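Hey, I'm writing a tutorial for new members on how sequence and structure tokens pair up, and I'd like a real worked example in the thread rather than a made-up one. If someone can provide the structure for the chain below, I'll link this post from the tutorial.
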Amino acid sequence: MKTIARNHQKRRFTASGSSDPSAPVWLWGQHAVEAAIANPEREVLRQIASENAARRLSLSDVEILDPKAIDKLLPPGAVHQGLAIRVKPLEALSLDDVLARPDAPTRICVLDQLSDPHNLGAIFRSAAAFGIGAIVLQTRHTPPITGVAAKAAAGAIETVAEVRAVNIARTIDQLGAEGFHTIGLAGEGSETIVDAVSGAPKVAFVMGAEGSGLRPAVAKACASLARIPMQPGMESLNVSNAAAIAFYEAFRG
């Protein structure tokens, strides 16, 4: 796959129907905000905090607002802990960018059309905890990384590389060519996740959307399909829970 320059228009990946993927977004909550501020790649446009939050965290150069005023700037139900920032989105990378790094990851996760931002954020959080260096998302059918996902990720969106790809099956083929053992998580898998990761120096987990799971073409592209053993009567796990278990097995192996 040909490397695309960082300033090329094709690098400006979009998700959903957003007309301007570079539009600023709000992030909120202590962990998400502190991680974003600490990230040198993140451009912060505005910082707001309640008086209590600013005092508690010893913040300076921050705009003090009443908590109710902060509520009005954020989506309904946002648990902001008195802290929010408006930022420019991080630029998504191509897989070539990530694999060309001197510290290129040996553990990667590919998400096939995941749609719930809470699940997306939780998977980023587990990825950071268990050494998954990059998460591949489809360009068109995965939501952008905004405040809801960032809050669930507890800062992990700043440390785990976000990769966008047009065609997931081709991306899996590329990972296989780069020496990754590509493992699709599926209840009908012929081996357990423990056996699937055993002895593999480089692993790429592939997970499907909530409810529908892996699409047939994506499952076919994987080198193997693996299952997480469960008690009889329990059909499946939430995708973010399954991801955490898979990541842990690769981490301890």
